[in-house]
């Protein structure tokens, strides 16, 4: 059976359990506004930490703003081991569309407002949510580097970037994490993952369960799940953990039952034959 490390050090000094929690789905429908059951949000976040999860990922665009407030309401004052990662660089309009916002002045304001909502003096990992096609990447990342120098950011991360964009950003500031879409069903960021692995940069796949597509029985995933007495979702997450030591999945859910299921994936080891069957 293959064996993968249980923890990873982001930036060399933030030790996290490799299976984190993406808080996005705690918002209302369409990742907009507050959910109907606000107490459930508190229960889910509290339970995640109880289960040993200590990497919590959010963004100012989730809600918008709501998700950061939820994280702070549930977890502040934060347990010492908890690492909060948030993002700036995208906006939402009234219809819920995602709009680029990578200008330096916006990123500075966004970071400072995230600090206030999260009740933090310094954000552990602050990620550029996506490059802005209207703003040179160097300008966006340069502002994050300045915020880091000022002590408002501990580490800089990126999201939704290419191998070239990662390399360009690294000439400006150390990049400790990359958050791209990646899963058993979507490996379009394979090259970015390989670059992260070569450099020891954390790779945080979003939609690690393909927006629920990898939770259904059937096919090769179902066969492996059946033989391991695990669920398809657990096998899909275990595959990510086995894929590379730098991979730190951040599955999200508003369900306590699904949270328990996801966290259970950390205890599943896939053998060589099973990994080969999954491709």
Instruction: Give the CATH topology.
Output: TIM Barrel
What's the number of helices? 10
What is the mean pLDDT? Answer: 94
Shape: globular
- Percent of sequence in beta strands: 15-25%
Nearest-angstrom radius of gyration?
Answer: 18 Å
Number of strands: 11
Report the span from N to C terminus.
Answer: 16 Å
| N-to-C order of helices and strands | EEEHEHEEEHEHEHEHEHHHH
Major sheet attributes: 7 strands, parallel
Residue stretches low in confidence (pLDDT < 50, at least 5 long) are none
In short:
This protein has helices at 38-50, 66-75, 104-118, 137-149, 163-170, 190-199, 219-228, 232-243, 256-264, 272-278; strands spanning 7-10, 14-17, 21-22, 55-57, 83-88, 90-92, 98-100, 123-128, 153-159, 175-179, 202-203. The chain is of the alpha/beta class.
Could you please describe the fold and organization of this structure?
It is a single chain. The chain has about 280 residues and is α/β, with parallel strands linked by helices. The chain has one domain: Alpha-Beta Barrel (TIM Barrel), CATH 3.20.20. The chain is about 40% helix and about 15% strand. The chain has ten helices and eleven strands. Strands 3-4-5-8-9-10-11 form a seven-stranded parallel β-sheet, covered by helices on one side. Strand 1 and strand 2 (about 15) form a beta hairpin. Helix 1 (about 40-50) crosses helix 2. The longest helix has 15 residues, at about 105-120. It is globular. The two termini are about 15 Å apart.
